[in-house]
Write a structure and sequence with these properties.
By secondary structure, this protein is mainly α. It has a domain of 160 residues. It contains 13 helices and no strands. The radius of gyration is 32 Å and the shape is elongated.
Length: 381
């Protein structure tokens, strides 16, 4: 009996030692697997880092314009590839044509301004409007600088050329930034085709994967993300378009130079909340500086009472009305997203806050039901 008891204890001890060794091996294996997975994720993110922003832009554009793709695919009965091609080409032309026209006009303006400035320097006739030369504090200094420039045109021209040579580096930086921007735009338009063609399948896979992790509540979150994205894009886009058109009318009536280019620039600036006044306000101040007092004041009044009023009307109604989210949340999301993620953050920021608000509301609703249930049980007891 004693021998059997000792053998049993020995077997149990060996089993415990083997289990501990097995547990250690399992822990080591899991740690290695997690480490390898983390390294793989980091490497994948490093590889696709440049393409994240273009892919997000492509996804946003595809989502808000997907009804048009569905029209070509389901109503007109085009194939998925051809429907996606039609939509991609259409979006590319809608973005590309104004962009090319704007760049061409800007290039012509820069060349014209440079030529005019060089001719005036060589002729010894560099001047500014009287209301600028008569500004308090700095007016006399401006007059002295102009007098020195016009007194010796050759020296001024040499100093101007030296200044350009010393600042060519900043031009290279601007060119590199513009090249990266165009490259990202091209990538966004390329991904747009695949989001149109495979978007439904991709969304179904994402929805199913998240449903397996979180549960059926994820459907409400995804619907909230979709509604918020659509409302933010339409709200910001329609507001910027309306303000740019009204500002363009004001530029044309006031006689501002290149009203088309100014309209395009105003549209870009208007995508940022409360950024439009800096566009039409700058043009109004320029008109005033050139002695066009009536036109400058008129444009300022047009911007204050018409252009800005559109921002207060369209944006809150389209965004807050469609999403049932307070406009202040959308406003914080737009500015915070712009700061954190760049231009694409205009749309990512509100979506993130919308998800957070949806989770918060669901948590409050669940705990509210639990509170009433406990209160009811207390009364019954």
């Amino acid at each position: 009996m004693i021998i059997r008891h000792n053998n049993s204890r020995l077997v149990i001890g060996l089993m415990i030692i083997m289990m501990e060794m097995w547990n250690k091996e399992l822990v080591i294996q899991r740690l290695l697997a997690i480490t390898l997975l983390a390294v793989l994720i980091v490497l994948c993110l490093k590889v696709i880092y440049f393409f994240i922003a273009p892919a997000l832009w492509g996804a946003i554009l595809a989502y808000v314009t997907f009804p048009f793709y569905r029209f070509f695919h389901q109503k007109v009965k085009f194939s998925p590839n051809f429907s996606a091609l039609i939509m991609t080409v259409s979006i590319s032309l809608m973005i590309g044509i104004p962009l090319v026209v704007g760049v061409f006009i800007l290039q012509q303006e820069v060349i014209s301004f440079y030529g005019t400035l060089v001719r005036r320097i060589q002729a010894g006739y560099v001047d500014l409007p009287e209301n600028i030369k008569n500004l308090p504090v700095v007016g006399q200094q401006i007059k002295d600088i102009l007098w020195e420039m016009n007194k010796n045109p050759d020296a001024t021209m040499e100093a101007f050329r030296s200044w350009i040579q010393s600042h060519l580096y900043y031009g290279k930086i601007a060119f590199d930034a513009a090249f990266k921007g165009f490259a990202k735009l091209g990538m966004a338009l390329m991904t747009l085709f695949f989001f149109y063609r495979d978007g439904l399948s991709l969304m179904h896979q994402i929805r199913q994967a998240l449903r397996n992790i979180i549960g059926n509540r994820i459907d409400g979150y995804i619907d909230s993300v979709g509604a918020t994205t659509q409302a933010v894009v339409y709200g910001i886009g329609l507001t910027a378009l309306a303000q740019a058109v009204l500002a363009g009318i004001g530029y044309a009536v006031a006689g501002a130079p290149n009203p088309i280019l100014l309209t395009i620039l105003t549209f870009i600036i208007a995508l940022i909340p409360f950024g439009t006044p800096f566009a039409w306000g700058g043009v109004a101040l320029w008109l005033l500086s050139q002695g066009h007092t009536t036109e400058g004041i008129g444009l300022g009044l047009w911007g204050t009472f018409v252009i800005s009023w559109v921002d207060n009307l369209i944006r809150p109604i389209v965004i807050s009305g469609a999403t049932k989210i307070p406009f202040i949340i959308i406003f914080i999301g737009v500015l915070g997203g712009l700061t954190a993620f760049g231009t694409v953050g205009l749309f990512i920021g509100p979506v993130v806050l919308a998800i957070g608000l949806a989770v918060w509301r669901e948590w409050i609703s669940q705990h509210k039901n639990e509170f009433f249930a406990q209160k009811l049980e207390h009364k019954e007891s």
